[in-house]
Amino acid sequence: MTDQIGFFDAIYTQRAIRHLKPDPVPREIIEKLIEAGTTAPSGANSQRWKFLVITDPETKKTIAEYYLKSWEAAYGDQNPTPPNIQDHVRSSADYLARNMADVPVLLMACIEHDGSPSTMTRGSSIYPAVQNILLAARALGLGSAITTLHKRYDKEINTLLGIPDNVETAALLPIGYPQDGYKYGPTRRAPVSEVTYWEKWNAS
After folding, report:
1. pLDDT by residue, tens only, the chain of 204 residues
2. 107 DSSP β-pair partners
3. Which of 37, 47, 8 has the alpha carbon at shortest distance from 144?
4. Cβ-based neighbour number of residue 169 at 10 Å
5. Cβ contacts of residue 184 below 8 Å, gap of 6+?
6. Cα 96 from Cα 46, distance rounded (Å)
7. In terms of pTM, does the model score above 0.70?
8. Staple partner for 182: which of 3, 19, 65, 177, CB 3.0–4.6 Å?
């Protein structure tokens, strides 16, 4: 395994990396990422997460086709008013959408539920695990990004993967080694003073 880095080094340099080599990622490293995910908190410590590792070329190809359709609908020429995102982010995300099938590992983060409607609070029991996986990937020299565009084709992808009705996919994480020339942070974010209020809204 790649030498691990410090906790805050991982936090301050972890960023979405979408240009990934097709080189395989060893099974033990994928299991290490998932183990990192399972150390996260969840509601009532229920730990109702499940992780689906996808490496089969034909399955990845099918998922990639759905993903590209979703990308085109949300951000491509099919959308007359695509969301305003930075040019370099759009270019990077467009590359991933067109090359998803070549990513060595697709990791589907899922959450079991009781059949009630999907809500933001349901995500509170899976997204901390997703963030742990992203940080662990950074620490181990892997690139990844959190994506959810596959959910436009939830039913089709759930059928493809045999995901039962009481399980919701929360994120699709493409995982691989970064291509040459694509590297980690530092990240650029708004300063704390611009996003923090004290005691009351808009009070600084």
Report:
1. 455 788 899 899 999 999 999 999 999 999 999 999 999 998 888 889 999 999 999 999 999 999 999 999 998 877 777 778 888 889 999 999 999 999 999 999 999 987 777 776 677 789 999 999 999 999 999 999 999 999 999 999 999 999 999 999 999 999 999 999 998 988 888 999 999 999 999 987
2. 53, 173
3. 37
4. 20
5. 13, 14, 15, 17, 138, 178
6. 33
7. yes
8. 19
Q: Which two tokens stand for residue 25?
A: 């990622």
- Paired tokens of 88: 């370099």
Q: Please identify which residue in the block is written with the tokens 């209020």.
A: 197
